[in-house]
Design a protein that fits this description.
Layout: H1 38-46, E1 71-78, H2 82-93, E2 98-102, H3 109-114, H4 116-134, H5 149-173, E3 177-187, E4 190-197, E5 202-217, E6 235-236, H6 238-242, E7 250-254, H7 258-269, E8 273-278, H8 289-299, E9 303-308, E10 310-318, E11 321-328, E12 339-341, E13 343-346
Parallel strand pairs: 1-2, 1-5, 2-3, 6-13, 7-8, 7-13, 8-9
Antiparallel strand pairs: 3-4, 4-5, 10-11, 11-12
Length: 348
């Protein structure tokens, strides 16, 4: 470097000297104005630094697979959700031989099986119940609703089954091969699938290798489980909440995002009282703040406590319920005393 912090430069001033790899190590002498003292010129020359040559990064080499493949295809799609099956169907329409690797029993991924679709089916029922309850103020009273949880759960499953069945038929029509299991790359053009069976995702122990020319990774996401939460059936994620095993009296939603509040709305309409805890200063951070204010005002009767700027630090399974301990998210803040809940939904 030919300059230091605080120096003044002008057009044409020499700032630094770079040496290319293999070039002569001699550095050019610094440009010194005629009226610059000799001591300053010597100091500038002493400060000259040689820049180390830049070594080009070597691209990593993919592992090679030496075994034999059970299946081969032009395109392998890892994940059968909305992104995966859409890509697979389009590729098949264009004439490619396509294989989908999916861990669930049916296509559709999280969205169709344990996400958007079942939650909207339940939200529709909750919306009708809420709408009917408002009619009493207009002089038409239908009385308190009688909810059959088993029948309601069956309705949700029918909606899922109808849509997943349609996807299966579309895949069969396009001659798209579906391999059920967990896929892992074992080479640049090979994926090993640990096959699963049953209604869950239990591994059978058998494996299958698929060779492909191109691959699309559409693996999606999964719910986060907080490490300090007990392993207890009364602590659930969104998938567990959609199972709708029972309606609790008190329910805590960990996280003030859309997924948690969506499921909270369903449980509230069915009779649960809600608390929600959120580390930030408002609910549904990704949404327009004016809309959130309206939503919060309309849904305020559902909640006993909306704990903002509060974090959950501990939880304990007791015979009475899940005892949850809170702490302020900001220094100097306040938080409620530990509370006990019949159901805790993790939706962070």
């Amino acid at each position: 470097l030919k300059i230091k912090l605080g120096d003044k430069v002008s057009e044409g001033s020499l700032l630094l000297v770079l040496e290319a790899a293999g070039a002569a190590s001699a550095a050019s002498a610094p440009v010194v104005e005629q009226n610059q003292p000799l001591a300053q010129a010597q100091q500038a020359q002493a400060a000259t630094q040689t820049v180390a040559p830049v070594v080009a990064a070597v691209a990593p080499t993919a592992a090679s697979f030496g075994g034999t493949a059970d299946l081969d295809c032009d395109l392998l799609v890892l994940g059968g959700g909305p992104g995966g099956y859409s890509a697979a169907f389009r590729a098949a329409d264009l004439g490619l031989k396509v294989v989908i690797v999916e861990r669930y029993t049916t296509l559709g991924g999280v969205c169709l099986n344990v996400g958007c679709i079942p939650s909207k089916a339940l939200l529709h029922v909750a919306s009708v119940i809420d709408e009917v309850s408002h009619m009493a103020a207009l002089g038409v009273d239908f009385g308190a609703p009688k909810v059959n949880i088993d029948t309601l759960r069956g309705h949700k499953e029918k909606v899922i089954s109808k849509l997943t069945g349609g996807l299966g038929a579309m895949a069969k029509m396009r001659k798209v091969t579906i391999v059920r299991g967990y896929g892992a790359f074992v080479g640049a053009n090979h994926v090993e699938v640990e096959e699963t069976s049953g209604t869950g995702q239990d591994k059978t122990g058998s494996k299958k290798v698929v060779a492909f020319k191109k691959c699309i990774i559409a693996a999606g996401s999964q719910a986060v489980r907080l490490p300090f939460m007990p392993n207890d059936p009364r602590v659930v994620d969104s998938t567990g909440a959609l199972a709708l095993k029972q309606v609790p009296k008190r329910m805590l939603i960990l996280g003030g995002g859309i997924i948690g509040l969506e499921m909270g709305t369903v449980y509230s309409t069915l009779g649960a009282r809600l608390d929600v805890v959120e580390m930030l200063d408002g609910l549904m951070q990704g949404a327009d703040r004016d809309l959130v204010k309206i939503w919060q005002k309309m849904n305020a009767p559902r909640f006993d406590n909306i704990m903002l700027k509060t974090k959950t630090v501990a939880a304990e399974a007791t015979p009475e319920g899940i005892k949850v301990t809170f702490a302020p998210a900001e220094e100097g803040g306040t938080c409620p005393e530990p509370q006990t809940y019949d159901l805790v939904l993790q939706a962070v």
